Protein backbone atom coordinates (compact mmCIF):
# COMPACT_ATOMS: atom_id res chain seq x y z
CA UNK A 1 0.00 0.00 0.00
CA UNK A 2 2.86 2.37 0.84
CA UNK A 3 4.50 1.78 -2.57
CA UNK A 4 1.15 2.41 -4.22
CA UNK A 5 0.72 5.78 -2.49
CA UNK A 6 4.29 6.83 -3.27
CA UNK A 7 3.80 5.97 -6.93
CA UNK A 8 0.58 7.97 -7.05
CA UNK A 9 2.23 10.94 -5.35
CA UNK A 10 5.13 10.83 -7.83
CA UNK A 11 2.61 10.77 -10.65
CA UNK A 12 0.85 13.82 -9.27
CA UNK A 13 4.13 15.70 -8.92
CA UNK A 14 5.23 14.80 -12.44
CA UNK A 15 1.91 15.91 -13.85
CA UNK A 16 2.17 19.47 -12.56
CA UNK A 17 5.80 20.53 -12.15
CA UNK A 18 7.25 22.78 -14.84
CA UNK A 19 3.93 23.47 -16.57
CA UNK A 20 2.89 27.01 -17.43
CA UNK A 21 -0.72 28.09 -16.91
CA UNK A 22 -2.92 27.05 -19.81
CA UNK A 23 -0.44 24.58 -21.29
CA UNK A 24 -1.69 21.20 -22.44
CA UNK A 25 0.43 18.26 -21.35
CA UNK A 26 0.30 14.68 -22.62
CA UNK A 27 1.83 12.04 -20.33
CA UNK A 28 3.00 8.61 -21.45
CA UNK A 29 3.98 5.87 -19.03
CA UNK A 30 6.88 3.45 -19.38
CA UNK A 31 7.80 0.66 -16.96
CA UNK A 32 11.49 0.64 -17.91
CA UNK A 33 12.35 4.33 -17.71
CA UNK A 34 15.67 5.21 -19.29
CA UNK A 35 16.19 4.50 -22.99
CA UNK A 36 19.11 6.85 -23.50
CA UNK A 37 19.51 10.41 -24.68
CA UNK A 38 17.11 10.98 -27.62
CA UNK A 39 19.90 11.73 -30.08
CA UNK A 40 20.94 9.51 -33.04
CA UNK A 41 24.15 8.15 -31.55
CA UNK A 42 23.08 8.10 -27.90
CA UNK A 43 19.65 6.49 -27.72
CA UNK A 44 19.59 2.87 -26.58
CA UNK A 45 19.61 0.42 -29.49
CA UNK A 46 16.07 -0.81 -29.00
CA UNK A 47 12.72 0.40 -30.30
CA UNK A 48 11.70 2.64 -27.36
CA UNK A 49 15.00 4.52 -27.65
CA UNK A 50 14.48 5.02 -31.38
CA UNK A 51 10.92 6.28 -30.88
CA UNK A 52 12.02 8.89 -28.34
CA UNK A 53 14.70 10.11 -30.73
CA UNK A 54 12.16 10.25 -33.59
CA UNK A 55 10.14 12.87 -31.72
CA UNK A 56 13.12 15.23 -31.98
CA UNK A 57 14.66 14.27 -35.34
CA UNK A 58 12.99 13.81 -38.71
CA UNK A 59 13.88 11.50 -41.57
CA UNK A 60 13.22 12.11 -45.25
CA UNK A 61 10.14 9.87 -45.14
CA UNK A 62 7.90 8.43 -42.42
CA UNK A 63 4.83 6.23 -42.04
CA UNK A 64 1.23 7.07 -41.26
CA UNK A 65 -1.84 4.83 -41.33
CA UNK A 66 -1.68 4.53 -45.11
CA UNK A 67 2.03 3.89 -45.52
CA UNK A 68 4.99 6.07 -46.47
CA UNK A 69 4.60 9.85 -46.50
CA UNK A 70 7.05 12.68 -46.89
CA UNK A 71 8.64 14.43 -43.93
CA UNK A 72 11.72 16.45 -44.84
CA UNK A 73 11.15 15.31 -48.42
CA UNK A 74 7.87 16.19 -50.14
CA UNK A 75 8.47 14.20 -53.33
CA UNK A 76 10.70 11.30 -54.37
CA UNK A 77 11.39 9.14 -57.41
CA UNK A 78 13.59 6.23 -58.44
CA UNK A 79 15.68 5.98 -61.60
CA UNK A 80 16.39 2.33 -62.37
CA UNK A 81 19.09 3.13 -64.93
CA UNK A 82 21.29 5.03 -62.48
CA UNK A 83 20.00 3.07 -59.45
CA UNK A 84 19.38 6.35 -57.64
CA UNK A 85 16.63 8.07 -55.68
CA UNK A 86 15.91 11.77 -56.08
CA UNK A 87 14.25 13.65 -53.22
CA UNK A 88 12.68 17.10 -53.39
CA UNK A 89 13.02 18.72 -49.98
CA UNK A 90 10.55 20.96 -48.18
CA UNK A 91 11.04 24.69 -47.91
CA UNK A 92 10.94 26.77 -44.72
CA UNK A 93 12.25 24.06 -42.40
CA UNK A 94 14.43 25.11 -39.47
CA UNK A 95 16.51 23.33 -36.89
CA UNK A 96 15.46 23.79 -33.28
CA UNK A 97 18.17 26.44 -32.81
CA UNK A 98 16.72 28.52 -35.66
CA UNK A 99 19.27 27.60 -38.32
CA UNK A 100 17.69 26.97 -41.76
CA UNK A 101 17.58 23.36 -42.94
CA UNK A 102 19.19 22.87 -46.38
CA UNK A 103 20.10 20.06 -48.82
CA UNK A 104 23.64 20.36 -47.46
CA UNK A 105 22.38 18.86 -44.18
CA UNK A 106 21.08 15.78 -46.00
CA UNK A 107 24.26 15.34 -48.03
CA UNK A 108 26.31 15.74 -44.86
CA UNK A 109 24.13 13.26 -42.94
CA UNK A 110 24.59 10.46 -45.45
CA UNK A 111 28.32 11.07 -45.74
CA UNK A 112 28.62 11.20 -41.94
CA UNK A 113 26.69 7.93 -41.49
CA UNK A 114 28.94 6.24 -44.04
CA UNK A 115 31.89 7.20 -41.84
CA UNK A 116 30.17 6.75 -38.47
CA UNK A 117 27.40 4.14 -38.96
CA UNK A 118 24.01 4.77 -37.38
CA UNK A 119 22.88 1.87 -35.19
CA UNK A 120 19.46 1.35 -36.82
CA UNK A 121 20.62 1.50 -40.45
CA UNK A 122 24.19 0.92 -41.58
CA UNK A 123 24.39 2.57 -45.02
CA UNK A 124 28.16 2.19 -45.47
CA UNK A 125 27.90 -0.50 -48.16
CA UNK A 126 24.46 0.41 -49.53
CA UNK A 127 24.86 4.09 -50.42
CA UNK A 128 27.48 4.79 -53.08
CA UNK A 129 27.31 8.59 -53.09
CA UNK A 130 24.95 11.51 -52.60
CA UNK A 131 24.85 14.83 -54.41
CA UNK A 132 22.95 18.11 -54.20
CA UNK A 133 20.82 19.14 -57.17
CA UNK A 134 20.04 22.85 -57.03
CA UNK A 135 18.44 24.52 -54.02
CA UNK A 136 15.98 21.86 -52.89
CA UNK A 137 16.91 18.45 -54.31
CA UNK A 138 19.33 15.66 -53.48
CA UNK A 139 20.14 12.45 -55.33
CA UNK A 140 21.25 9.27 -53.60
CA UNK A 141 23.11 6.67 -55.68
CA UNK A 142 23.09 3.10 -54.40
CA UNK A 143 25.94 0.60 -54.66
CA UNK A 144 23.42 -2.05 -55.70
CA UNK A 145 19.62 -2.27 -55.96
CA UNK A 146 18.34 -2.34 -52.39
CA UNK A 147 14.69 -3.38 -52.11
CA UNK A 148 13.79 -1.78 -48.74
CA UNK A 149 15.64 1.52 -49.28
CA UNK A 150 12.58 3.75 -48.81
CA UNK A 151 11.47 2.17 -45.52
CA UNK A 152 14.76 1.04 -43.98
CA UNK A 153 16.91 4.03 -44.91
CA UNK A 154 14.96 7.05 -46.20
CA UNK A 155 12.16 6.32 -43.72
CA UNK A 156 14.43 5.45 -40.80
CA UNK A 157 17.66 7.43 -40.51
CA UNK A 158 17.43 10.79 -38.72
CA UNK A 159 18.83 13.76 -40.62
CA UNK A 160 21.39 15.60 -38.47
CA UNK A 161 22.52 19.27 -38.58
CA UNK A 162 25.75 19.87 -40.45
CA UNK A 163 26.53 23.04 -38.50
CA UNK A 164 26.60 21.03 -35.26
CA UNK A 165 28.04 17.64 -36.22
CA UNK A 166 30.64 18.70 -38.83
CA UNK A 167 33.37 19.04 -36.19
CA UNK A 168 32.32 15.99 -34.11
CA UNK A 169 34.77 13.13 -34.66
CA UNK A 170 33.41 10.81 -31.97
CA UNK A 171 29.59 11.07 -31.99
CA UNK A 172 29.25 8.36 -29.32
CA UNK A 173 30.96 10.75 -26.88
CA UNK A 174 29.09 13.87 -28.02
CA UNK A 175 26.77 14.47 -25.06
CA UNK A 176 26.48 18.25 -25.28
CA UNK A 177 22.78 19.36 -25.30
CA UNK A 178 23.28 20.36 -28.95
CA UNK A 179 23.39 16.65 -29.84
CA UNK A 180 19.58 16.66 -29.55
CA UNK A 181 18.86 19.60 -31.87
CA UNK A 182 16.71 18.29 -34.70
CA UNK A 183 13.92 19.43 -37.01
CA UNK A 184 11.22 17.27 -35.40
CA UNK A 185 7.87 18.26 -33.89
CA UNK A 186 9.20 18.18 -30.33
CA UNK A 187 12.15 19.92 -28.69
CA UNK A 188 13.92 18.16 -25.83
CA UNK A 189 13.58 20.13 -22.61
CA UNK A 190 14.56 17.56 -19.96
CA UNK A 191 16.21 14.15 -19.98
CA UNK A 192 16.90 12.59 -16.59
CA UNK A 193 18.67 9.25 -16.90
CA UNK A 194 18.27 8.31 -13.24
CA UNK A 195 14.48 8.69 -13.14
CA UNK A 196 13.79 7.87 -16.78
CA UNK A 197 11.97 11.19 -17.24
CA UNK A 198 11.69 12.78 -20.69
CA UNK A 199 10.06 16.17 -21.22
CA UNK A 200 9.53 17.45 -24.76
CA UNK A 201 8.09 20.83 -25.72
CA UNK A 202 6.13 21.52 -28.88
CA UNK A 203 8.07 22.95 -31.80
CA UNK A 204 5.95 26.04 -32.48
CA UNK A 205 7.52 26.45 -35.93
CA UNK A 206 7.06 22.89 -37.12
CA UNK A 207 6.73 22.80 -40.88
CA UNK A 208 3.94 20.20 -41.10
CA UNK A 209 1.51 22.03 -38.83
CA UNK A 210 0.63 22.90 -35.25
CA UNK A 211 1.14 20.48 -32.38
CA UNK A 212 -1.94 19.24 -30.51
CA UNK A 213 -0.17 19.48 -27.14
CA UNK A 214 2.27 21.98 -25.63
CA UNK A 215 4.29 19.40 -23.79
CA UNK A 216 4.82 15.65 -24.03
CA UNK A 217 6.16 13.71 -21.06
CA UNK A 218 7.37 10.14 -20.77
CA UNK A 219 7.59 8.99 -17.15
CA UNK A 220 8.62 5.78 -15.45
CA UNK A 221 5.73 4.00 -13.73
CA UNK A 222 5.23 0.84 -11.72
CA UNK A 223 3.20 -1.75 -13.60
CA UNK A 224 0.90 -2.33 -10.62
CA UNK A 225 -0.43 1.24 -10.57
CA UNK A 226 -0.92 1.67 -14.32
CA UNK A 227 -4.72 1.08 -14.23
CA UNK A 228 -5.29 3.65 -11.48
CA UNK A 229 -3.07 6.25 -13.20
CA UNK A 230 -4.92 5.77 -16.48
CA UNK A 231 -8.36 5.91 -14.93
CA UNK A 232 -7.50 9.02 -12.88
CA UNK A 233 -6.09 10.77 -15.95
CA UNK A 234 -2.56 11.08 -14.60
CA UNK A 235 -1.44 8.98 -17.54
CA UNK A 236 -2.77 9.50 -21.05
CA UNK A 237 -1.22 6.42 -22.65
CA UNK A 238 0.88 3.39 -21.72
CA UNK A 239 1.63 -0.17 -22.78
CA UNK A 240 -0.39 -2.59 -20.66
CA UNK A 241 -0.40 -6.24 -19.64
CA UNK A 242 -3.11 -8.37 -21.34
CA UNK A 243 -4.90 -9.01 -18.05
CA UNK A 244 -5.56 -5.26 -17.69
CA UNK A 245 -7.53 -5.08 -20.95
CA UNK A 246 -11.07 -5.99 -19.75
CA UNK A 247 -11.06 -3.67 -16.74
CA UNK A 248 -9.69 -0.69 -18.65
CA UNK A 249 -12.16 -1.24 -21.47
CA UNK A 250 -14.99 -1.08 -18.94
CA UNK A 251 -13.64 2.27 -17.75
CA UNK A 252 -13.79 3.70 -21.27
CA UNK A 253 -10.11 3.53 -22.20
CA UNK A 254 -9.18 2.81 -25.81
CA UNK A 255 -7.26 -0.44 -26.31
CA UNK A 256 -5.20 -1.35 -29.37
CA UNK A 257 -3.36 -4.59 -30.07
CA UNK A 258 -0.22 -5.00 -32.16
CA UNK A 259 0.39 -7.65 -34.76
CA UNK A 260 3.04 -10.22 -33.80
CA UNK A 261 6.06 -8.05 -34.58
CA UNK A 262 8.08 -8.84 -31.42
CA UNK A 263 9.66 -12.15 -30.46
CA UNK A 264 11.24 -13.71 -27.40
CA UNK A 265 14.03 -16.07 -28.31
CA UNK A 266 16.59 -18.47 -26.94
CA UNK A 267 20.07 -17.35 -28.00
CA UNK A 268 22.92 -19.86 -28.20
CA UNK A 269 26.57 -18.88 -27.90
CA UNK A 270 27.48 -20.82 -31.02
CA UNK A 271 31.12 -19.74 -30.68
CA UNK A 272 31.73 -22.13 -27.78
CA UNK A 273 31.22 -25.85 -27.28
CA UNK A 274 28.73 -27.52 -27.03
CA UNK A 275 26.53 -24.73 -28.43
CA UNK A 276 28.69 -24.69 -31.56
CA UNK A 277 27.39 -28.19 -32.33
CA UNK A 278 24.08 -28.00 -34.21
CA UNK A 279 23.08 -31.36 -32.71
CA UNK A 280 23.21 -29.83 -29.23
CA UNK A 281 21.19 -26.79 -30.31
CA UNK A 282 18.57 -29.05 -31.86
CA UNK A 283 18.48 -31.22 -28.74
CA UNK A 284 17.69 -28.16 -26.64
CA UNK A 285 15.05 -27.04 -29.14
CA UNK A 286 13.31 -30.44 -29.08
CA UNK A 287 13.41 -30.53 -25.27
CA UNK A 288 11.48 -27.30 -24.78
CA UNK A 289 7.68 -27.26 -24.69
CA UNK A 290 7.03 -23.80 -26.11
CA UNK A 291 3.27 -24.30 -26.05
CA UNK A 292 3.51 -24.75 -22.29
CA UNK A 293 5.53 -21.51 -22.04
CA UNK A 294 2.79 -19.61 -23.87
CA UNK A 295 0.08 -21.23 -21.75
CA UNK A 296 1.77 -20.67 -18.37
CA UNK A 297 4.25 -17.79 -18.64
CA UNK A 298 2.04 -15.74 -20.99
CA UNK A 299 -1.26 -17.06 -19.60
CA UNK A 300 -2.20 -17.87 -23.17
CA UNK A 301 -1.62 -14.30 -24.37
CA UNK A 302 0.62 -15.00 -27.34
CA UNK A 303 1.54 -17.66 -29.86
CA UNK A 304 4.38 -20.14 -30.29
CA UNK A 305 7.30 -18.76 -32.27
CA UNK A 306 8.58 -19.92 -35.62
CA UNK A 307 12.20 -21.17 -35.76
CA UNK A 308 12.43 -19.16 -38.99
CA UNK A 309 12.01 -15.95 -36.92
CA UNK A 310 9.25 -14.27 -38.97
CA UNK A 311 5.74 -14.51 -37.53
CA UNK A 312 2.65 -15.68 -39.44
CA UNK A 313 1.63 -12.01 -39.67
CA UNK A 314 4.44 -11.43 -42.17
CA UNK A 315 3.53 -11.89 -45.85
CA UNK A 316 6.95 -13.54 -46.21
CA UNK A 317 6.34 -16.19 -43.53
CA UNK A 318 6.54 -19.86 -44.43
CA UNK A 319 5.07 -22.77 -42.52
CA UNK A 320 7.28 -25.28 -44.35
CA UNK A 321 10.20 -25.68 -41.96
CA UNK A 322 11.23 -27.66 -38.88
CA UNK A 323 9.08 -26.43 -35.97
CA UNK A 324 10.79 -28.36 -33.14
CA UNK A 325 7.63 -29.50 -31.43
CA UNK A 326 8.63 -31.05 -28.12
CA UNK A 327 10.13 -34.51 -28.58
CA UNK A 328 11.95 -35.70 -25.45
CA UNK A 329 13.19 -38.95 -26.99
CA UNK A 330 14.62 -37.19 -30.02
CA UNK A 331 16.34 -34.69 -27.75
CA UNK A 332 17.89 -37.48 -25.67
CA UNK A 333 19.03 -39.29 -28.80
CA UNK A 334 20.87 -36.19 -30.06
CA UNK A 335 22.45 -35.56 -26.66
CA UNK A 336 23.68 -39.15 -26.44
CA UNK A 337 25.92 -38.46 -29.44
CA UNK A 338 27.55 -35.51 -27.68
CA UNK A 339 27.86 -36.73 -24.08
CA UNK A 340 28.04 -33.27 -22.50
CA UNK A 341 27.69 -33.32 -18.70
CA UNK A 342 28.70 -29.85 -17.46
CA UNK A 343 26.33 -27.21 -16.11
CA UNK A 344 24.73 -24.70 -18.47
CA UNK A 345 23.96 -21.14 -17.42
CA UNK A 346 20.97 -19.30 -18.87
CA UNK A 347 20.92 -15.51 -18.48
CA UNK A 348 17.80 -13.40 -18.86
CA UNK A 349 16.04 -10.23 -17.71
CA UNK A 350 13.56 -10.44 -14.85
CA UNK A 351 10.50 -10.31 -17.13
CA UNK A 352 11.52 -13.73 -18.49
CA UNK A 353 11.72 -15.31 -15.03
CA UNK A 354 8.82 -17.76 -15.36
CA UNK A 355 9.81 -18.62 -18.91
CA UNK A 356 13.33 -19.45 -17.71
CA UNK A 357 12.00 -21.69 -14.94
CA UNK A 358 9.90 -23.67 -17.42
CA UNK A 359 12.87 -24.08 -19.76
CA UNK A 360 15.02 -25.32 -16.89
CA UNK A 361 12.37 -27.93 -16.03
CA UNK A 362 12.21 -29.11 -19.64
CA UNK A 363 15.99 -29.36 -20.01
CA UNK A 364 16.29 -31.31 -16.76
CA UNK A 365 14.01 -33.96 -18.30
CA UNK A 366 16.70 -34.70 -20.89
CA UNK A 367 19.52 -34.72 -18.34
CA UNK A 368 20.87 -31.17 -18.73
CA UNK A 369 21.88 -29.31 -15.58
CA UNK A 370 20.92 -25.64 -15.75
CA UNK A 371 21.74 -22.61 -13.60
CA UNK A 372 19.50 -19.57 -14.02
CA UNK A 373 20.81 -16.00 -13.68
CA UNK A 374 18.44 -13.03 -13.75
CA UNK A 375 19.84 -9.55 -14.41
CA UNK A 376 19.01 -6.20 -16.01
CA UNK A 377 18.24 -6.28 -19.73
CA UNK A 378 21.14 -3.95 -20.54
CA UNK A 379 23.51 -6.38 -18.79
CA UNK A 380 22.09 -9.29 -20.77
CA UNK A 381 22.55 -7.32 -23.99
CA UNK A 382 26.16 -6.49 -23.10
CA UNK A 383 27.03 -10.11 -22.26
CA UNK A 384 25.48 -11.33 -25.50
CA UNK A 385 27.32 -8.65 -27.45
CA UNK A 386 30.65 -9.78 -25.95
CA UNK A 387 29.91 -13.53 -26.26
CA UNK A 388 30.15 -13.97 -22.48
CA UNK A 389 27.27 -16.37 -21.99
CA UNK A 390 26.09 -19.94 -22.63
CA UNK A 391 22.42 -19.47 -23.46
CA UNK A 392 20.37 -16.29 -23.12
CA UNK A 393 16.69 -15.44 -23.27
CA UNK A 394 16.21 -12.15 -25.03
CA UNK A 395 13.94 -10.55 -27.60
CA UNK A 396 13.43 -7.82 -30.16
CA UNK A 397 10.86 -6.29 -32.48
CA UNK A 398 11.07 -5.31 -36.11
CA UNK A 399 9.46 -8.48 -37.47
CA UNK A 400 6.56 -6.60 -39.02
CA UNK A 401 8.78 -4.45 -41.21
CA UNK A 402 10.66 -5.36 -44.35
CA UNK A 403 12.01 -8.95 -44.25
CA UNK A 404 15.51 -7.53 -44.51
CA UNK A 405 15.23 -7.65 -40.71
CA UNK A 406 16.50 -11.23 -41.21
CA UNK A 407 19.79 -9.89 -42.56
CA UNK A 408 20.11 -7.64 -39.52
CA UNK A 409 19.30 -10.30 -36.89
CA UNK A 410 21.34 -13.08 -38.52
CA UNK A 411 24.38 -11.36 -40.03
CA UNK A 412 24.31 -7.99 -38.24
CA UNK A 413 26.86 -6.96 -35.63
CA UNK A 414 24.56 -5.92 -32.76
CA UNK A 415 23.41 -7.84 -29.68
CA UNK A 416 20.06 -8.57 -31.36
CA UNK A 417 21.86 -10.50 -34.09
CA UNK A 418 22.83 -14.17 -34.06
CA UNK A 419 25.99 -13.12 -35.93
CA UNK A 420 25.88 -16.50 -37.60
CA UNK A 421 28.15 -16.83 -40.63
CA UNK A 422 28.76 -20.60 -40.72
CA UNK A 423 26.29 -21.48 -43.47
CA UNK A 424 27.50 -20.20 -46.84
CA UNK A 425 24.16 -20.70 -48.58
CA UNK A 426 22.32 -18.81 -45.84
CA UNK A 427 24.72 -15.88 -46.14
CA UNK A 428 24.37 -15.82 -49.93
CA UNK A 429 20.57 -15.77 -49.73
CA UNK A 430 20.52 -13.04 -47.11
CA UNK A 431 22.64 -10.87 -49.38
CA UNK A 432 20.73 -11.75 -52.54
CA UNK A 433 17.30 -10.87 -51.13
CA UNK A 434 18.52 -7.34 -50.41
CA UNK A 435 18.99 -6.48 -54.07
CA UNK A 436 16.14 -8.56 -55.50
CA UNK A 437 13.51 -6.06 -56.62
CA UNK A 438 11.03 -8.68 -57.92
CA UNK A 439 8.83 -9.32 -54.88
CA UNK A 440 7.72 -12.84 -55.88
CA UNK A 441 11.31 -13.96 -56.36
CA UNK A 442 12.33 -12.23 -53.14
CA UNK A 443 9.58 -14.06 -51.25
CA UNK A 444 10.98 -17.41 -52.40
CA UNK A 445 14.44 -16.39 -51.19
CA UNK A 446 13.05 -15.32 -47.80
CA UNK A 447 11.22 -18.63 -47.43
CA UNK A 448 14.42 -20.58 -48.09
CA UNK A 449 16.28 -18.39 -45.60
CA UNK A 450 13.74 -19.31 -42.92
CA UNK A 451 14.08 -23.03 -43.65
CA UNK A 452 17.88 -22.99 -43.50
CA UNK A 453 17.93 -20.87 -40.36
CA UNK A 454 15.46 -23.19 -38.64
CA UNK A 455 17.66 -26.15 -39.54
CA UNK A 456 20.79 -24.44 -38.18
CA UNK A 457 18.90 -23.02 -35.15
CA UNK A 458 21.48 -20.44 -33.91
CA UNK A 459 18.54 -18.97 -32.00
CA UNK A 460 15.10 -20.36 -31.28
CA UNK A 461 12.08 -18.07 -31.27
CA UNK A 462 10.07 -19.05 -28.21
CA UNK A 463 6.94 -16.97 -28.71
CA UNK A 464 5.31 -13.80 -30.00
CA UNK A 465 3.50 -12.08 -27.11
CA UNK A 466 0.18 -10.26 -27.32
CA UNK A 467 1.01 -6.56 -27.03
CA UNK A 468 -1.50 -3.90 -25.98
CA UNK A 469 -1.59 -0.15 -25.45
CA UNK A 470 -4.27 1.79 -23.58
CA UNK A 471 -5.00 5.49 -24.06
CA UNK A 472 -7.72 8.07 -23.46
CA UNK A 473 -9.59 10.16 -26.03
CA UNK A 474 -7.19 13.11 -26.13
CA UNK A 475 -4.98 11.75 -28.92
CA UNK A 476 -5.79 8.82 -31.21
CA UNK A 477 -2.77 6.53 -31.13
CA UNK A 478 -2.27 3.84 -33.74
CA UNK A 479 0.13 1.18 -34.97
CA UNK A 480 1.45 1.50 -38.51
CA UNK A 481 1.90 -1.43 -40.85
CA UNK A 482 5.51 -2.54 -40.70
CA UNK A 483 6.25 -0.51 -37.56
CA UNK A 484 7.92 2.86 -37.16
CA UNK A 485 11.21 3.36 -38.98
CA UNK A 486 12.54 -0.03 -40.01
CA UNK A 487 9.96 -1.89 -37.92
CA UNK A 488 9.45 -0.64 -34.34
CA UNK A 489 6.08 -2.00 -33.09
CA UNK A 490 5.16 0.93 -30.83
CA UNK A 491 2.09 3.17 -31.44
CA UNK A 492 3.78 6.47 -30.51
CA UNK A 493 3.77 7.93 -34.00
CA UNK A 494 4.72 11.62 -33.90
CA UNK A 495 2.23 12.32 -36.70
CA UNK A 496 -0.60 11.58 -34.26
CA UNK A 497 0.37 14.73 -32.33
CA UNK A 498 0.25 17.09 -35.32
CA UNK A 499 -2.62 18.98 -36.97
CA UNK A 500 -1.16 18.48 -40.42
CA UNK A 501 -1.61 21.26 -42.95
CA UNK A 502 -3.57 20.13 -45.99
What are the main properties of this structure?
6-stranded mixed beta sheet, alpha+beta, 3 domains, 29% helix, globular, disordered N terminus, 4-stranded mixed beta sheet, D-Maltodextrin-Binding Protein, domain 2, Dipeptide-binding Protein, domain 1, 502 residues, Dipeptide-binding Protein, domain 3
SSE layout and pairings?
Elements: H1 2-16, E1 25-30, H2 47-56, E2 61-64, E3 67-70, E4 73-79, E5 84-89, H3 103-115, E6 127-133, E7 137-142, H4 149-154, H5 162-165, E8 186-192, E9 197-202, E10 209-211, E11 215-220, H6 226-232, E12 237-240, H7 245-250, E13 254-257, E14 263-268, H8 278-287, H9 290-296, E15 302-304, H10 328-336, E16 344-349, H11 353-364, E17 370-375, H12 377-385, E18 391-396, H13 405-411, H14 424-434, H15 439-456, E19 459-465, E20 468-471, E21 498-500
Helix pairs in contact: 8-10, 14-15
